[in-house]
Amino acid sequence: MSKPHVIPSHYAPLQAQQYLLLPVLVPKKEDQSCEIKGWQAVAQAVMGYRHSVTGQPCQDAASAQTRLRPIVVNCDGAGSAKLSHFGSNALSQQLQRLFMTLEPLLAEWLDTKDVDTEQISERLASIIARHSKGIIKDIATHWQQPETAFRSTLLVAIMGKYHHFWLQIGDGYLLRRCEHDETHAWQVMVMPEKGEFANHTCFVDPALTMAHVQYGMASATEISGLAAMSDGAAERLMNLQYHTSAPLVERFASLLSQQSSHRVLFEFLSDPSVWGKTSGDDKSISMVVAPKANANEQ
């Protein structure tokens, strides 16, 4: 008799939830999964001058993809955690792989018009949060260090045909570009949980619970861009008093059709004339943008 498969403890809740999700895996004939075309992506993380002085590595990590659907992930490792740069990079890269694995679910949930957005957003947020804790646990086991040494914030935004999803753990900013709003084209999705400037934030670590996770789903109609940035980048790209975006955000969005967009963003985030009078924190931006001509087709 073969032995039963043993599921690691930090994946057990995810495995249990998969059985609950089976009914929604059956595609509806009237709403087949879509392919969202024409989007461009850029992501950069640059070390702040404060870290160059102290010898700390860049603790930010940023990724963006459009291969299956537009997705941004942005992570800011805790300054007090000596190995948080490993944690933020692991979250940024491995979550993108998770989303590729979850694509059948994402297609069913985000590309179908009539769904229970409250229930789905709760399920998706729970999967991401639990998997993120597993990523941190695995890397801590590999390095034989406490999990708190790798803790990081987490920002995620995922685009669909009818809905977009977002999740935020800790500080930083999640933005969406709304075509119908000419005054504030880039809108903040959710107010950050007490940021670094208040000397307190929450992280992906063993203490994380769903009470610390902010998430939601909303209509994708007239949404033509998603962006995530660390609080270091927000010092110049956001009005921190009113939580509105600066014109520079749209400037980068307009550059995404150019092959040099990654270089331009890197040079901006490295420019001492721009960041010389800031806190010197690391800066990172993840962005995906649709051509404006196609915005109303999404």
Structure, described:
This protein has helices at 12-21, 49-54, 84-101, 103-110, 117-143, 231-237, 247-254, 261-269, 272-275; strands at residues 40-46, 60-65, 71-76, 154-159, 163-169, 173-178, 186-188, 214-219, 223-229, 238-239, 244-245, 283-289. The protein has a single domain (33-289), classed as Phosphatase 2c, domain 1. With 298 residues, it is α+β, with helices and mostly antiparallel strands. The longest helix has 27 residues, at 117-143. The radius of gyration is 19 Å and the shape is globular. Mean pLDDT is 84; it is low at 1-35, 194-199 and 294-298. The strands form 3 sheets. The protein has a 5-stranded antiparallel β-sheet with strand order 1-12-9-6-7. The protein has a 5-stranded antiparallel β-sheet with strand order 2-3-4-5-8, covered by helices on one side. A two-stranded antiparallel ribbon has the order 10-11. It comes from Photobacterium toruni. It holds the Pfam family PP2C_2. This is PPM-type phosphatase domain-containing protein. Residues 48-269 form the PPM-type phosphatase domain.
Shape annotation: globular
**Sheet with the most strands, sense and barrel status:** 5 strands, antiparallel
Strand elements, count: 12
Number of helices: 9
CATH class: Alpha Beta
CATH topology: Phosphatase 2c, domain 1
Report strand %.
15-25%
Query: What strand order characterises the main sheet?
Result: 1-12-9-6-7
- Level-2 CATH architecture: 4-Layer Sandwich
Mean pLDDT across the residues is 84
Order of helices and strands: HEHEEHHHEEEEEEHEEHHHE
Domains, number: 1
Low-pLDDT runs: 1-35, 194-199, 294-298
Taking all Cα atoms into account, the compactness measure Rg is 19 Å
Ends distance:
52 Å
Protein name: PPM-type phosphatase domain-containing protein
Organism: Photobacterium toruni
Pfam families: PP2C_2 (PF13672)
InterPro entries: PPM-type_phosphatase-like_dom
